[in-house]
Amino acid sequence: MSATQSRAAILDTLRKGLAAAPFFADAPPARPASISVGPDAWELLAGVLGPLEVRLRLARTPAEAAVHVADIARERQAATYTRWDAALNALNLPGGFDAALSSLERLEPGCCQNLARADLGFVLAHAALLESGSLAVVAAPGQHRSASLLPPASVVLVPRNALLPDVSHLPALLNRHRLPAGALPACLNLITGPSSTADIELVLVRGVHGPGTLDVIGLDWDV
Amino acid sequence: MMMELTTRHFRQQSASACRDSNLRAVLDHATRYFMGKRGAALEAFAGRDEHFARARSARLNALSRLPDLLEELERNATAAGVKVHWAADAAEARAIITGIAKAANVRVIVKGKSMVTEEIELNPALEAAGADVWETDLGEFIVQLAGEPPSHIIAPAIHKSRAEVAELFAEKLNLHGQSIPELTLLAREALREKFLCADMGITGANMAVAETGSVILVENEGNIRMSTTCPPVHVALMSLEKVAATMQDAADILRVLPRSATGQKMSSYVSVLTGPRKEGETDGAREMHLVILDNGRSEVLADPVLREALACFRCGACLNSCPVYQTIGGHAYGSVYSGPIGTLLSSLLLPQDLTRDLPFGCTLCGACARTCPLGINHPKLMLALRQRVANGRANPVSSAHSLLARHPLAYRLAVGVARTLDPNLHLLPRLPGMPGLSEFVDSRRPPELKKPFAARRRKTKREQKQ
């Protein structure tokens, strides 16, 4: 069959099937109330990240955030890093974002091969879901997907106004990031802990293809 | 080299699996592990029943509007820059994907775990077209190296021990490691090289959202993100029932799927992909294809009972709860899909003469239906399949047995005769002119017929007096 014929045949069979045996789905119950994002939101986030072996470091000021960035780079023994561009510049860390990483080599984003030797990757979360500890990152120019994927250690900075209750906010989150012409972003990732597998004898191992470690810096101000 | 497993030989394969004590130990450990994780996660899941009902509603709503939603998906995905293809069967899907690979001059392909690519036997077709195909999910990579099919929806290499994996890596890759973290690191390094030079990434699709044209992929390892981020071409193959009407429905499903599959609140990575990379982006596929596969599913929608099987989102919980799967494992089913949902899907998608025995490999205990977060009633569907296999005609031997069972006097008389003439039921299956009797008796393994209780009591008393 040609592609057009297959399409028509499939849709025709489906329509005939539904006509022969009509199908009615019951209306769903109301969605249970979401947890509220209150003053204890950072504690809730730390609590849900803990079992995923993810440490949350809270920064009250841009200067504290810069200290956390430098600490993480030292602890992970990183020599190279890649990072998102304008989104992280806008945080106004003292001396610029790279000042905290002055002894490291910054790799410019490009194809994945360019970033194969990056030790650390820095990105900004567009949302952090308190129920699951998921961090939403939206790809765009200057916000490369590989920054949170290729390096063995990943760092996600989470602004206070990115804290959301749960995944039921996904549609609104996507809508907020529509492009000027109305198109959705090409890629949104929810990242929940480090890369992991239990495919050999069900023993959990972190860092099979993506980062083996994930650090979160909470920015306790609205960005 | 293992013998070729097929649904046609389900009985023999099951009998052989039952005799494999290593397999039994592995299955026991694995199914308990998954059920334990899942149970703990669901215990702590506030509003669980409402969330389950919402996920079920999202799936059934999609099925009830399937043709309209598929057209809407096509429109919106196309508007987002995705090339949408329709494949009536496995051969068409293979031709479409190998065609894309040839047109893009593809040499190296990296694949994310996808049952539906196994269903259409995609890898041999791509290899025949000259491509080098790498399964990148660790479990799939292991079974690919071993030349075996996956044995579990969630953990494809559940049947392999670390020693076997170490041996396999040494033999096939000349890479040497012993501990599980070491072996995982070796796989990371070997496959990282492939991701960086791959020309094409192939994945399945956990869902596609009609309202936005997005493809949603759920995973833990990051290999699916790698397969959709590094290579210039991404092909997602989706069986047509996996549509969600809205992003809100998809979110309701994401609330339940990881918890039911692995006990996680959310899988490590969820990717929502809406078209190829936008202008100015430096990574992500430049070209994205969505192949919508039928392969027998559209016919199932007309069956008011059996179509419920199409609601499944492949969490695998029914496998782990099933006493038959716990005993025989995935390979014995002889199909890509195993366990209760696998029995249903294989029976619905494969020719009936190949799958006659599958719906009888079920005790009707109902553990699967109690476990399924979407409320699929597997045993009810299993009985409908049995009726279909019997084609409305009862097996004469079963009818005779049923008649005896309903008349106690006749039953006692028949057992009395059998006890006298053939206490071990060795001769009964060989009676001439009774087709199906041998199979009936064999499949039930009745115990040796004992003397009646009263007779044994009299004998004991006599012995005591002496």
Structural class of chain B: alpha/beta
* CATH architecture label name of the largest domain in chain B: 3-Layer(aba) Sandwich
CATH class value of the largest domain in chain B:
Alpha Beta
Q: Secondary-structure element order of chain A, as H and E?
A: HHEHEHEEEEEEHEEEE
Q: What's the total number of strands of chain B?
A: 10
Distance between the termini of chain B: 63 Å
What about the largest sheet of chain B?
6 strands, parallel
Strand composition percent of chain B: 5-15%
Radius of gyration of chain A (CA) equals 21 Å
Shape, per Cα inertia axes of chain A: globular
Task: Using the coordinates above, name the CATH class of chain A.
Answer: Alpha Beta
Quaternary state of this entry equals heterodimer
Integer average pLDDT of chain B: 93
Tell me the layout of helices and strands.
The complex is a heterodimer of chains A (223) and B (466).
Chain A: H1 3-20, H2 41-49, E1 55-59, H3 62-75, E2 80-83, H4 86-89, E3 105-106, E4 120-124, E5 127-129, E6 134-138, E7 153-159, E8 163-164, H5 170-176, E9 187-191, E10 196-197, E11 205-206, E12 213-219
Parallel strand pairs in A: 1-12, 2-3, 2-4, 4-7, 5-8, 7-12
Antiparallel strand pairs in A: 5-6, 6-9, 10-11
Chain B: H1 10-18, H2 21-43, H3 48-64, H4 66-79, E1 82-87, H5 90-103, E2 108-111, H6 115-119, H7 122-128, E3 132-135, H8 138-146, H9 162-173, H10 180-197, E4 200-203, E5 207-209, E6 214-219, H11 223-229, E7 233-239, E8 243-244, H12 247-262, E9 269-273, E10 287-293, H13 297-300, H14 317-321, H15 323-328, H16 339-349, H17 367-371, H18 378-390, H19 396-406, H20 408-421, H21 437-444, H22 453-465
Helix pairs in contact in B: 2-12, 3-12, 16-18
